[in-house]
């Protein structure tokens, strides 16, 4: 999955060095490839495959400023389509994720799917819940919000930062910036942990004449005077091993007490700053209980119930397309939101679905005292979810198992999902689980409802 390794392997073993050595020294081209060539080739190849599969020709601009700009519109269109019913296996069913049964001469179907999220953390605009793409992964803000680059990084400060700094001239704000650069040092972090545990070091391995004294003094007396450029350790010190402190690309949030992403011990709110780029909250997957991934979406700010509902409604744009079972570890909050929504369309969209909490989380993560959760989301409420011998009919942990695989991929997730699904479907076919696809037109057309395909599951 490394473009760097792909380029290196090609250059070491496949690039035509014999021909290259025979060319004149003024020859303007090289037979070696770099990381950018690998990514451009990957994106272009899969865009061609995608358009060919849909009977379309790929059209790209001839006047774009770069190859990345040339590919951007087509990639954006494909990403947007994949967030809905765009995956090839979106309409997949098989004997492991779907139960077919007859009752009173009517054929019924129960499709089981699971939702879960994984925090892959792709770079995104630092403005909360902004969906605009970044110009490059190194940018902190999108084009719409790039004017905020000059703003002080203190979370509730609206002043512009001073030249050479990321904070304004307010002493408390400048002090936090100085602290940020010191805090990234591994030695400093370990010392801080010892201080919190009130543990004394048995001896000081550094002599009194070392450079440790002024560094400790700057740490303990944060006066806002220290310049970020002066925090670099002198040559030959531990700084050569540890680097320049916290990664400037990393999203780090600290307060005056040095607490990262946590509540101060005092319980009081203090000045907080956010350094580095914000990252997306998580990738949300909808997975059939057999393991085939039906779709995914990027959650920018949080995995809130309303965001989960929007994801489901976009992935299943008609009630006809809804699976009968929508497992989710936070369905109790989703159900509460649906019941309190004044919009009748939104509050009733999932009336034909069972919304259980997956078995593992219901047993281990949800309190028995939570009456509403037990009343609405206990998977035992639906007899269709159990077999005659008392076992669970469907795998309700399929999404978490898929997440373990997703964690290895990032930029080309949609394409890797498509290829993974192809592999799983081949295995299902080999095992005799009868994988097939429901015609999309049947799922996307609500005008005619066949008996048994979307009947409401009743609680037992």
From TrEMBL:
Q: Name one Pfam family in it.
A: CxC6
| Annotated ranges, domain CxC6 like cysteine cluster associated with KDZ | 114-178
Per its UniProt record, what InterPro entries does this chain match? Answer: CxC6
Protein name according to UniProt: CxC6 like cysteine cluster associated with KDZ domain-containing protein
Write down the species: Mycena rosella (Pink bonnet)
Lineage start? Eukaryota, Fungi, Dikarya, Basidiomycota, Agaricomycotina
């Amino acid at each position: 999955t490394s473009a760097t390794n792909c380029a290196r392997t090609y250059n070491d073993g496949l690039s035509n060095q014999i021909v290259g050595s025979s060319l004149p020294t003024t020859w303007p081209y090289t037979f070696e490839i770099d990381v950018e060539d690998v990514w451009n080739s990957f994106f272009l190849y899969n865009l061609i495959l995608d358009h060919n599969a849909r009977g379309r020709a790929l059209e790209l601009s001839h006047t774009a400023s770069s190859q990345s700009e040339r590919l951007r519109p087509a990639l954006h269109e494909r990403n947007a389509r994949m967030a809905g019913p765009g995956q090839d296996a979106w309409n997949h069913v098989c004997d492991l994720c779907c139960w077919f049964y007859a009752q009173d001469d009517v054929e019924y179907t129960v499709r089981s799917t699971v939702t879960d999220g994984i925090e892959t953390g792709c770079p995104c605009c630092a403005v909360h819940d902004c969906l605009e793409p970044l110009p490059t992964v190194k940018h902190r803000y999108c084009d719409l919000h790039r004017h905020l680059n000059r703003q002080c990084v203190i979370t509730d400060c609206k002043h512009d930062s001073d030249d050479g700094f990321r904070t304004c001239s307010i002493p408390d704000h400048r002090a936090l910036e100085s602290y940020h650069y010191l805090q990234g040092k591994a030695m400093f972090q370990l010392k801080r942990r010892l201080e919190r545990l009130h543990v004394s070091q048995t001896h000081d391995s550094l002599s009194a004449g070392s450079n440790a004294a002024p560094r400790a003094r700057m740490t303990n007396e944060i006066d806002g005077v220290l310049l970020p450029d002066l925090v670099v350790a002198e040559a030959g010190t531990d700084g050569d091993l540890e680097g320049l402190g916290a990664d400037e690309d990393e999203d780090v949030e600290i307060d005056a007490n040095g607490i990262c992403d946590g509540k101060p011990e005092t319980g009081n709110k203090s000045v907080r700053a956010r350094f580095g780029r914000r990252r997306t909250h998580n990738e949300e997957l909808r997975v059939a209980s057999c393991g085939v991934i039906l779709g995914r979406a990027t959650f920018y700010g949080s995995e809130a119930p309303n965001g989960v509902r929007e994801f489901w409604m976009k992935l299943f744009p008609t009630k006809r397309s809804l699976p009968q079972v929508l497992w989710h570890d936070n369905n109790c909050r989703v159900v509460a939101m649906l019941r309190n929504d004044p919009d009748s369309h939104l509050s009733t969209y999932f009336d034909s679905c069972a919304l259980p909490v997956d078995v593992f989380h219901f047993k281990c993560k949800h309190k028995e005292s939570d009456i509403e959760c037990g009343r609405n989301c206990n998977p035992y409420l639906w007899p269709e979810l159990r077999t005659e011998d008392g076992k669970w009919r469907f795998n309700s942990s399929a999404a978490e198992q898929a997440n373990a695989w997703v964690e290895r991929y990032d930029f080309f997730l949609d394409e890797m999902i498509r290829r993974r699904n192809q592999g799983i479907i081949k295995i299902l076919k080999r095992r005799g689980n009868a994988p097939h696809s429901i015609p999309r037109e049947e799922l996307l057309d609500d005008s005619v409802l066949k008996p048994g395909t979307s009947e409401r599951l009743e609680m037992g």
